Amino acid sequence: MMRESTIQTIADACLTARHVVVVTGAGLSAESGLSTFRGPREALWSRYDPMRLATPEAFEQDPALVTRWYDWRRQAGLQARPNAGHLALVCLERIVTASGVGFTLLTQNVDRLHHRAGSVNVYELHGSIHEWRCTVTGQSFEPPPQPFQEFPPRSPFDPRGRLRPAVVWFGEPLPAEVLRVAAEAMESCDVFFSIGTSSVVYPAAGFAEQVIARGGLTIEVNPNETPISGRVNHAARESSGSWLPRLIAHISL
Ligand code: BV8
Q1: Tens digit of each residue's pLDDT (9 = 90 or more) over 195-209
Q2: Strands (E), the chain
């Protein structure tokens, strides 16, 4: 359990920073009941590896299976609620921006729970599961909440088209605008949080090193070890839903 005095030091640094950047991963949404990418898998999908399903090749090969998996996750996301970790990040954004500090939240998650919690300056590095795109025209929209009736779903934009989730699969480029915002934020970032991510997927996994190279303050919140645990200034071996509210309790304007 991280000492209170250490959390106080981190809280003070957030209020005197130039720019606080937070990167989040599936672990943050785990406490909302959403499965992580590399953790234990629900029986329904336990025989499939997300790393293999989240690829254009898998969609090419079996569009019905891939879109069924994504719609199952979309439904789970719609049922889920933001948890204490999401809400603490909303508080952190409000407190630091009120102190004139820059704040950017870069999420690898596609569940939109940060938006639903109330985060404002949030960017989806890997897109959103709640937006689907026509394979012919490239047009995208937010489908109605009911489960799709056919897989792959028919496109409303072109009779020849099908729908795919507007997420970034392995081997696909991240959205240029999101990459630009992330690069800009990382340039002035002097306090960096890596929360609920296994830090193995790039380019997100490389952000911490950029701050470490500049002598910025880096904090990881993850009950388990990751490749950056030994590199960051502080590794909180705790869940995000418990550690982030502790941070907020230490930040006073
Ligand atoms: C690209 C789709 C270039 C959406 C996903 C170097 C530079 C650039 C690219 C690469 C590179 N090296 C390799 C690459 C290629 C590749 C890559 O990184 N491969 C890895 C495996 C080595 N990267 C790419 O392909 C990227 N594209 O760079 O394109 C390009 C340029 C031009 C033209 C063409 C191409 C695209 C990467 C995005 C891939 N898409 N998903 C979806 O289905 O969700 S990634 C997938 O993994 C998810 O998005 C997920 O978010 C992401 C990372 O996983 P995590 O979020 O970390 O989740 P995970 O389950 O792994 O870990 C959860 C953690 O939480 C655990 O550590 C656990 O301990 C912790 N935890 C659990 N409970 C809690 C908790 N923590 C806190 N509290 C708790 N309660």
Answers
A1: 999 999 999 999 999
A2: 19-24, 102-107, 122-124, 127-134, 140-141, 163-167, 191-195, 217-221, 234-236
* Atom 32 in ligand 1: residue holding the nearest Cα: 173
**Cβ-count burial of 109 within 10 angstroms (0-12 exposed, 13-18 middle, 19+ buried)?**
buried
**Where in the sequence is the domain holding 57, given as residue range(s)?**
35-79+133-167
Q: Is 5 in the pocket of ligand 1 (CB under 6 A)?
A: no
Contact 81, 115 (CB under 8 A): no
pLDDT tens digit sequence for 130-173: 999 999 999 999 999 999 999 999 999 999 999 999 999 999 99
Question: Catalytic residue numbers?
Answer: 126
Burial of 231 (0-12, 13-18, 19+ CB in 10 A): middle
The answer, yes or no, to whether any atom of ligand 1 lies below 6 A from the CB of 105, is no
Q: Could you say which DSSP state residue 205 is in?
A: G
Question: Do 75 and 141 sit in the same domain of this protein?
Answer: yes
Q: What is the CATH number of the domain that holds 60?
A: 3.30.1600.10
pLDDT given for residue 40 in this prediction: 66
How many angstroms separate the first and last alpha carbons of the chain? 25
- Here the CATH number for the domain that contains residue 202 is 3.40.50.1220
